[in-house]
Write a structure and sequence with these properties.
173 residues; alpha/beta; 2 domains; five-stranded mixed beta sheet; two-stranded antiparallel sheet; 21% strand; protein transport
Length: 173
């Protein structure tokens, strides 16, 4: 590995020792360490959630269908982890029928299942998620998780309507 070579100087009195280190084993050790860390490292895929988005081609678009308010449930995601829901139209919505729930347990999944059972046309039942400007991303993901728990694949994400904003603001204040 290392060797010491003694050489005499031409003056005759001093001997100079030259030390030469062989770096080949160090390179071997480096490759062994790289190999070790490659085999012991955890290669995992990040957890992602699939979103079913509509196709962008015009020929694949379905005809627009108006969904009856009794055939849907609308969730409004508000500030401070608050979530409200209703099954009303613009004329019927009031502070009395905009109900509040939370993300604890499976409350939202039960609300979705109950609304599905009471829907006049269950094959067209739709869950609508309307996040407000004060809502956070975590609540949106929690809502999508609850949809997966309830096994409802027909859902929509929309902007909150002015008539819903008015009733929502009354409840939040």
């Amino acid at each position: 590995m290392a060797e010491v070579i003694a050489q005499e100087k031409q003056g005759g009195k001093q001997k100079k020792k030259i030390i030469r280190v062989d770096m080949t084993p160090m390179v071997d050790l480096g490759f062994l360490l790289i190999t070790f860390f490659m085999f012991t490292t955890n290669f995992t895929k990040p957890n992602v959630m699939d979103l079913g988005l509509p196709a962008k081609t015009p020929e694949s678009r379905l005809p627009k269908e108006v969904i009856d308010y009794r055939n849907q449930v609308t969730f409004i995601l508000g500030k401070d982890n608050r979530v409200f829901y209703h099954q009303s139209n613009a004329t019927d919505l009031s502070t009395g029928n905009l109900k509040e729930t939370d993300f604890s347990g499976i409350k939202i999944s039960k609300i979705i299942d109950e609304a599905y059972k009471n829907a006049p046309k269950p094959q067209n039942f739709t869950v609508i998620i309307k996040p407000t400007d004060e809502a956070n991303y975590k609540n949106f993901v929690d809502m999508l998780d609850n949809l997966a728990i309830a096994k409802k694949e027909r859902y929509g994400i929309a902007d909150i309507k002015p008539w819903e904003t008015k009733v929502y603001k009354e409840l939040v204040q």
